[in-house]
Automatic annotation (TrEMBL):
This is Phenylalanine-4-hydroxylase. It is an enzyme of class 1 (oxidoreductase). It catalyses: (6R)-L-erythro-5,6,7,8-tetrahydrobiopterin + L-phenylalanine + O2 = (4aS,6R)-4a-hydroxy-L-erythro-5,6,7,8-tetrahydrobiopterin + L-tyrosine. Keywords: Iron, Metal-binding, Monooxygenase, Oxidoreductase, Phenylalanine catabolism. Pfam families: Biopterin_H. Coiled coil: none annotated. It comes from Brevundimonas denitrificans.
Length: 289
């Protein structure tokens, strides 16, 4: 889900200046806890053999399957000991500058609410299942943890340069919808995929989408869609590669991007490393599952 859109300009009633709210774990209902359990169990039938080792390792280390929605008071000390990150609750999507400030300080903002039982498969706004199950395991990896902090700092800079749209695409195609070349083949690590039963399968196995080698500048020029399965996924070699590529000063890249046209969502360029040349059949028939 996009973390780059927001509805309010000021923190809503009851939220702090940095938009955080208490998790108030005791307030979750029995139904809400069972929703977590259902989603967790469903993903665990799908993810072994599909999710990257680094994701599965983080999931195990954080012990997010103790029955019901994780209590941040229990989860945060474990995460903090691993990488110095913590998770804070917010009412929903927050403004870009607030989001970046949290990341730059190793705080990941998570929605407090969980989806309703009739929304198990799809919802527009990120809930606690997407945010915690999807994002937090990766934050237990030291390299990914560094990447996310650097991203927060990079976001503050990109905003001041007017190139946020380009940087948002990097987030989209890595943090949310990234694929990785693991020892045993292609694996998923993007939070938008690992938290979705249908896209976990589609992203790896459907003949429709393109799967292309990750290329930083190319990715920052590529359009994306927020309303359906992706038409292109980008494959990194490793988290270290991602960290290395993004460590460089983006100044010269931003300079070049200013004059460069956007790249269509289904384009394959002569310079692309092609893992899968997709049929685009799913998108051509109108998509939406
Ligand atoms: N290196 C980027 C810059 O100079 C910052 C950044 C790091 C952005 C990691 C995204 C991810 O702006
Ligand atoms: Fe997300």
């Amino acid at each position: 889900m996009s973390d780059f859109e927001h509805v309010f300009d000021a923190p809503p009633e009851g939220a702090a200046a940095d938009w955080t709210i208490p998790q108030d774990w005791a307030s979750y209902s029995e139904v809400e806890h069972r929703t977590w359990d259902t989603l967790y169990a469903r993903q665990m039938k799908i993810l072994p053999g599909r999710a990257a080792d680094v994701f599965l390792k983080g999931l195990t280390a954080l012990d997010l399957n103790t029955g019901g929605i994780p209590d941040f008071a229990v989860m945060n000390p474990k995460l903090q000991a691993l990488t110095g990150w913590t998770v804070v609750c917010v009412p929903g999507l927050v403004p870009d500058d607030v989001f970046f400030d949290h990341l730059a300080n190793r705080r990941f903002p998570s929605g407090q609410f969980i989806r309703k039982p009739d929304q198990l498969d799809y919802l527009q706004e990120p809930d606690i299942f997407h945010d915690v199950f999807g994002h937090v395991p990766m934050l237990s990896d030291p390299d990914f943890a560094d990447y996310m902090e650097a991203y927060g700092k990079g976001g503050q800079r990109a905003a001041s340069l007017g190139v946020l749209q380009n940087l948002a695409r990097l987030y989209w195609y890595t943090v949310e919808f990234g694929l990785m070349q693991d020892a045993d083949g292609l694996r998923i690590y993007g939070a938008g995929i690992v938290s979705s039963a249908t896209e976990s399968v589609f992203s790896l196995e459907d003949p429709s989408p393109n799967r292309l080698g990750f290329d930083l500048e190319r990715v920052m020029r590529t359009l994306y869609r927020i309303d359906d399965f992706q038409q292109v996924y980008f494959v990194i070699d490793s988290i270290e590669q991602l960290k290395r590529d993004t460590l460089q000063d983006f100044g010269p890249i931003y300079g070049r991007l200013k004059g460069a046209p956007d790249i269509a969502i289904d384009a394959i360029l002569p310079t692309d490393a092609v893992f899968t040349r997709g049929t685009q059949a799913y998108a051509a028939r109108g998509g939406r599952f």
